[in-house]
Automatic annotation (TrEMBL):
Keywords: Phosphoprotein, Phosphotransferase system, Sugar transport, Transferase, Transport. Residues 2-147 form the PTS EIIA type-2 domain. Pfam families: PTS_EIIA_2. SUPFAM superfamilies: Phoshotransferase/anion transport protein. One of its GO terms (molecular function) is protein-N(PI)-phosphohistidine-sugar phosphotransferase activity. The lineage of its organism: Bacteria, Bacillati, Bacillota, Bacilli, Lactobacillales. The keyword Transmembrane helix does not apply. This is PTS fructose transporter subunit IIA. PANTHER family: NITROGEN REGULATORY PROTEIN (PTHR47738:SF1), PTS SYSTEM FRUCTOSE-LIKE EIIA COMPONENT-RELATED (PTHR47738). GO terms for biological process: phosphoenolpyruvate-dependent sugar phosphotransferase system. It comes from the Bacteria. Signal peptide: none annotated. CDD domains: PTS_IIA_fru (cd00211). One of its GO terms (cellular component) is membrane.
């Protein structure tokens, strides 16, 4: 089974700021059946961000929510039509979001493994370049699934 699903990837979304991105992620998590409580997911995304930025380097962010309303660990990916400020580690605006949704019951296990695997992938220029150049959800899913399978 592939971890990254094409119907969980949204390209060139017109979202103006980090708050709009978080609302979009929470809405998609609910629409995709990952959670039954959009407001709770939104709250958890904001709570995690308040602990410290999830904005990484080179235009990427890895926001994540852990909550009992989340049914199974999953990932939603969003690329933005225009980069937004995310208070990233390198100060650059964010244009590519890889959001993790984790059930409370898997908070210390699946969460940490997924987060470290995704963060590790983003350290490789061929991955970040490939993600930014991809023009279809299928291309993004294929790239990430092949790299995640190597770990």
């Amino acid at each position: 089974m592939s971890l990254i699903k094409t119907d969980h990837i949204f390209l060139k979304e017109n979202l103006a700021n980090q708050e709009e991105v978080m609302h979009f992620l929470a809405a998609k998590a609910t629409a995709l059946g990952l959670s039954n409580d959009e407001n709770k997911v939104y709250e958890k995304l904001l709570e995690r961000e308040a602990e410290g930025t999830t904005g990484m380097m080179d235009g990427f962010a890895i926001p994540h929510a852990k909550d009992a309303s989340i049914k199974e660990a999953d990932i939603v990916i969003v690329s933005l039509a225009k980069a937004v400020d995310w208070h990233s580690l390198d100060g650059s605006p964010t244009e590519f979001i890889i959001a993790l949704f984790i059930p409370d019951s898997e908070a210390g296990t699946t969460h940490l493994k997924l987060l470290s695997n995704v963060a590790r992938l983003l350290m490789h220029q061929e991955v970040t370049k490939g993600l930014k150049e991809a023009t279809t959800p299928a291309a993004i899913a294929a790239l990430l699934n092949s790299k995640l399978a190597e770990n």
